[in-house]
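User: Here's a chain of 224 residues. Predict its fold as tokens.
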Amino acid sequence: MERLVGEIKLRDVIDLRSNAEVALEGPGPLTRVPEVGIHHLTLFAEGGRYTDVEADTGDVGNTRIEGDRVLPWQGRRENDLAEVRVLGFYYAYLRDRPDSILAALRVLAQGEGAAIVHCAAGKDRTGVVSALALSVAGVTREAIVADYVATGDRLEAILGRLRRSDTYRADMDSRPAESHMPRPEFMENFLRVLDYRHQGPLGWLGEHGWTDEDATALRSRLLD
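Assistant: Prediction complete.
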């Protein structure tokens, strides 16, 4: 905490988890630090029960969550279709929550200190937002894909942490570790879809209200 807030000057946390994940996992210690702004920006079309594990069996508070929207990685059976599914999940974030994605990027653009972007594993939702931010900064496709794939270097530790949580354990234990790996073709094809449908990441952002001023501010922050 001292290192993050005092030394690194962390000032913003962008939390991409679903409402139910936040409710189930409880507040983290950074929520008690007045210098740090917590920005909860779910990438799921919220409507129902838990989040990544048990999405179709009840309520969390007054929130109802639809399992197939909150648990986009459930139900994977055929390994040869993994790429199609992952691409669908990633594009669904853009389709369902462009408001959250633009808000996340604007926090990064307008902040005055360091920022953390996270979801549960820091791979899928975080990977999509990070790829868009790096695209705005003019980073090469090769570097964006490499950044995404680098999450796999810590996969064992990430899965171990998630298995210690009742919220995620069942999903982690239901599939082999290899199925969680961030494969380069996932991000490559996601970006190709944006090229084909929207003239690239910047085209998609522009369609949803991202301005030249936003882009200039984010580039300045990331390249400073």
